[in-house]
Amino acid sequence: MAAFFTSSSSVLSLSVVLLLISLSSARPSVKVTDDVLSTVCSKTKNPSLCLQTLKADPRAATGDLKGLCQVSIDLALAKAKDTKNYIGSLIGQSNGPSLKEKYLSCSENFENSIGDLQDATGALNSGDYNGVNLHASAAMTETDDCEENFKEPPFDPSQLPKRNEDFDFLCSIILVISNLLIG
Are residues 106 and 84 in contact, defined by beta-carbon separation less than 8 angstroms? Predict the structure, then answer.
């Protein structure tokens, strides 16, 4: 009789382990619905802007959670590239070497952010959701470093601070989704 309970509990334990494994591997394939988008966006600083941003991309409504994460990475990557180009124009227009030096530093920061987001895509594709989170956080740190350049005069007269804020917001969506993927 003891052998029966031992084998029964072993089968039960194995069943529970297999169930947990299947649930954890199923999480990335959770279909994106309005409820999922609402859950994701409710965890951001601006839920309505998050919903508006994600719903503007048609891929967001047709994919799974992993696909939604890729959409958010793509949005942040596009913003980083656009901001880097914008900084390039500021470098050409800047009056004075000090401001130009600060813009050059920010350009390097955004180049690093672009690399971080490309690395986040690689991590996502390999199922390394902690890596996605880490790379998105690193990209956000780069914009913080850019902003630090302007704590002392000469101050930034451009729209760069707003662009940094927008970029950070997009990266925060990546963080929320990667945390959901992690479980």
Answer: no
Count the residues in the chain.
183
Measure the CA–CA gap between 5 and 11, rounded to whole angstroms.
10
137 and 1 Cβ atoms separated by less than 8 Å: no
The secondary structure of 40-74 as a DSSP string is HHHTSS-HHHHHHHHHTSGGGGTSBHHHHHHHHHH
Q: How far is the C-alpha of 69 from the C-alpha of 71, rounded, in Å? A: 5
Reported as a single tens digit per residue, the pLDDT across 90-146 is 999 998 899 999 999 999 999 999 999 999 999 999 999 999 999 999 999 999 999
User: Taking the CB of residue 7, how many other CB atoms lie within 10 A of it?
Assistant: 10
Q: In terms of DSSP H, where are the helices of 27-154? A: 34-42, 47-55, 65-93, 97-125, 129-148
Whole-model pTM? 0.84
**Residues 147, 48: Cα–Cα separation, whole Å:** 26
